[in-house]
Design a protein that fits this description.
Blueprint lengths: L5 H9 L6 E3 L8 H25 L4 E3 L7 H12 L7 E3 L2 H46 L4 E4 L3 H12 L7 E5 L2 H9 L3 E4 L5 H6 L7 E4 L4 H14 L4 E6 L5 H7 L3 E4 H14 L1 H10 L6 E7 L15 E7 L2 E4 L13 E7 L17
Length: 365
């Protein structure tokens, strides 16, 4: 099957001029221009304070040109002194003026230099500090979740997974839009700007070490290419893909997706259910909204439940996972629960049930 626009996407994937970079979430800081303005204002305050100190003891200073030191001379002296220029045309001659230079002017000179030099050094070391943060992030990133596409579907998927306990530091967003990545980093997620159909972009997201990949692109043909690339880079990751058209789901399964969600059909079914029964639609919306009301939770069978029927457990069991099969709670093939089974249950959302889906411990009573 050939999807619309597939040739164009393939040609784009072969280009090597696409720029991409990793952006890590930052703490809320002031705008750089505002920071520089504050430092310059502080430097000006130091300069004015020094000038008034000199002007207050003008009799203790000597000017080679006319012998007296006025306000203009005081500002001139403060400027050349704080900048360590020191022409020597105005000098402290009195004892009080010299003591003032020792205990006041010299510390102010040091403070003035720290302000100006500090601003310059910060600008020069920003790139080095960012590279150090990036290398430390890469070395610590393991078993994380890569989300391709930070649109409505991608954001909702991240919120649902994080509601179960996944830390924001374990989420990496990939999107070709710089604004989308800025929004992702503002929420605390790491971001990679670039085309996810390219293997080098996914490598920057460390997809080869990821535990799960969520693909929520705007186009189905893009989703197919991203799925193929992600599966090639990581054979063991769980890949979940959202598509618009149901006819493209089999192709994505063949491309390596573990689960395919047809967004248009799912939304349509929910709309139809809401028309037939608004209350049933509300219940379904509650079930798929993780972290509030009722939640669908996957958990292992405990020893006390082995040998029982699904209806004999303390939780409301919806399905039983046995091997690679998903069996309904009333399926005769289930019989009695086994220790290796996993249960899909409906539970009331509590802080105890907010666990990462990778860990999946038993919910506490």
């Amino acid at each position: 099957m050939k999807l619309p626009g597939q040739d164009a996407i393939a040609r784009q994937a072969d280009e090597h001029l696409v720029t991409h970079r990793v952006k890590l979430p930052r703490k809320l800081v002031e705008h750089p221009i505002r920071q520089v303005a504050k430092r310059l204002s502080l430097a000006l305050v130091v300069l004015v304070a020094t000038a008034f100190i000199v002007c207050a003891d003008s009799d203790g200073y000597s000017d080679n040109s006319d012998g007296s030191v006025d306000l203009l001379d005081a500002f001139y002296y403060a400027t050349v002194t704080l900048s360590t220029t020191g022409y020597g045309d105005i000098t402290p001659v009195g004892d009080a003026a010299r003591l003032t230079n020792i205990f006041l002017i010299t510390p102010l000179r040091v403070l003035f230099l720290i302000i100006l030099v500090g601003t310059t050094l910060e600008a020069l070391t920003e790139r080095t500090r960012e590279e150090w943060r990036l290398n430390r992030w890469r070395s610590a990133l393991r078993d994380h979740t890569v989300v391709v596409g930070f649109g409505t579907k991608g954001r909702s998927a991240i919120q649902t997974v994080c509601a179960t306990g996944l830390r924001k530091e374990q989420v990496v967003v990939v999107d070709p839009s710089g604004k989308a990545i800025e929004a992702a980093t503002a929420h605390g997620y790491a971001g990679v700007i670039g085309d996810a159909t390219r293997s080098d972009v996914l490598n920057r997201a460390e997809v080869f070490r990821a535990k799960q990949v969520i693909i929520a692109t705007q186009r189905d043909d893009t989703a197919v290419l991203v799925t193929l690339t992600a599966r090639q880079l990581n054979r063991g990751a769980k890949i979940v893909v959202a598509v618009r058209e149901e006819e493209n789901a089999p192709l994505l399964k063949q491309s390596g997706a573990d689960a395919v969600i047809t967004s248009a059909s799912a939304a349509g079914r929910l709309l139809g259910l809401s028309v037939l029964s608004p209350a049933a639609g509300m219940v379904m919306e509650d079930l798929i909204s993780q972290g509030s009301g009722l939640d669908l939770v996957e958990r292992p069978v405990i020893k006390a439940e082995v040998g029982r029927k699904p209806r004999e457990t303390s939780d409301l069991v919806v399905s039983v996972l046995r091997g690679h099969r998903v069996l309904g709670y009333d399926d005769p093939a289930v019989g009695e629960l086994e220790l290796t089974d996993r249960l899909i249950t409906i539970v009331r959302a509590t802080p105890a049930t907010h666990v990462a889906p990778d860990a999946r411990p038993l919910p506490r009573d």
